[in-house]
Amino acid sequence: MQLHHAVRGAVWVIFYLLFILAPLFALLAGSIPPARDFWTEFSVALGYAGLAMMGLQFGLTARFRYVTQPWGEDVIYHFHRQISLVAVALVVAHPLILFAVRPELLALLNSIQAPWRARFAALSIYSLIALVVMALWRAKLKLRYETWHLTHIVLALVAVAAGLLHMIGWGFYLIDPWKRALWIGLTIFWVGLLLYVRIVKPLFMLRRPYRVLEVRGERGDTSTLVMRPDGHPGFRFSPGQFGWLTVWGSPFRITGHPFSFSSSAEVADGRVEMTIRNRGDFTSAIPELPVGARVYIDGPYGAFTIGNPADMHVLIAGGVGITPMTSMIRTLADRGDPRPVILLYGSKDWESITFREELEALKARLNLTVVHVLADPPPDWTGERGFITAEMFKRHLPPPYADHEYFICGPNVMMDAIEAALGEMKVPMSKYHSERYSFV
Amino acid sequence: MRRLFADRLVLATGVVVILLSILFALSRVG
Questions:
Q1: Fewest 10 Å CB contacts: which of A75, A253, A298, A314?
Q2: What's the rounded Cα separation, in Å, for the pair A201 and A63?
């Protein structure tokens, strides 16, 4: 993370904490009801803070470029997942502590006889638990991504709305109208963030469609979608960035899919390319997409991009992680960049190396070295085999290692291993960038 | 590594929120 990004990141962390804690401490202003015991007050504080954290989840996933840029979208989504566990734990701790110190409140679990304010609390907590279970075990529950995504949004909305109604219904700290207005306003703000990404942005995208110009088959069961802007100039992106692609429908479809751009950022007519591997889900229909089909791209996003001072670029790709690297290589070639580029590229076998021929051709235009690493090499293979390791770096990279700029994109296992290897080689965090393509 | 940083941020956020919730409760009963 560069310095100005680090400062921006720190500012957003402070804002994040303020948004969680300021509404809680605002409850102590104005007229305050009589104090209860410590545990009751503590549990109430956890409930308020937990709900504020849940509400802010809508902000984390609202795709605000300015907010996400210092971190990278994959890290924001990682944070979103992890912090939601903390938030749910705080919200669930609220009734559990109350039940422990005041066992008579257990009667509120009987939703038939309980007052509405308790029913809303139960609805909020049950929704949160369902939301977490479905998010953690989506694959085991065999939920389709699209079904899960819609359910995820609905459950989050129900949880937050029911939580607010529980607070207002109880009314203990919200006797002052301005405090009620503050929490209602906050909830409207959270829901507004969701509406922004699901309604406002799609409305904007509706006026900026793209047309499929070509669907090109690539090695490794992969296809490149070539798309051009239809009636607008398109956008400029930096190599390594990605966009959310929506096909087969309007931009209001709940589920867009993030794909890196694989084309050069120097293409002048707004044309963009995305190279997509067939994973057996909706991606299996990409090769059948007709030329002329209307698609929508929300982008560009991501902090995984070249542009910092470096003596050379080291690109480490696993499988379809080659996509953003190809964009970088094509862009550097188009810019006539004289600096060396070393690509360590892990593939299953020789035949499935996406962009194999083009990478060879690009060597004529760029100081490019490609090191193929094959998991399943042919018998006469003399190159690298297995998985990319720290030893491989030392065989192919000139020291000092900390002077190079590193980019890593591939499966999570590979990313973890390489980040650890770079740490061992004393490469500072600011010199390497990673993007996990399976972040949603 | 950025994910590790994010994990630490999650932990720090949780700790800060719990500590300030304790402070909230103490300010009420104290």
A1: A253
A2: 10
* Chain A partners within 8 Å of B16 (Cβ): 17, 21
Helix (H) or strand (E) holding A345: strand A341-347
Tens of pLDDT, residues A51-84: 999 999 998 888 887 777 777 777 888 899 999 9
CA distance A314 to A299: 25
DSSP 8-state assignment for residue B18: H
Q: What is the C-alpha to C-alpha distance for residues A290 and A48, in angstroms, rounded to an integer?
A: 51
How is residue A278 written in tokens?
């067939």
Whether residues B24 and A25 touch (CB distance < 8 A) is answered with: yes
**Number of CB pairs, chain A paired with chain B, less than 8 A apart:** 87
Query: Could you give all domains of chain A from N- to C-terminal order, each with its CATH number?
Result: 3-200 (1.20.120), 210-301 (2.40.30.10), 313-436 (3.40.50.80)
Tell me how far apart the alpha carbons of residues B27 and A57 are, in angstroms, rounded to a whole number: 28
Q: Looking at residues A356-382, what average pLDDT do you find?
A: 95
Residues of A in contact with B17 (CB under 8 A): 20-21, 46, 49, 53, 86, 90
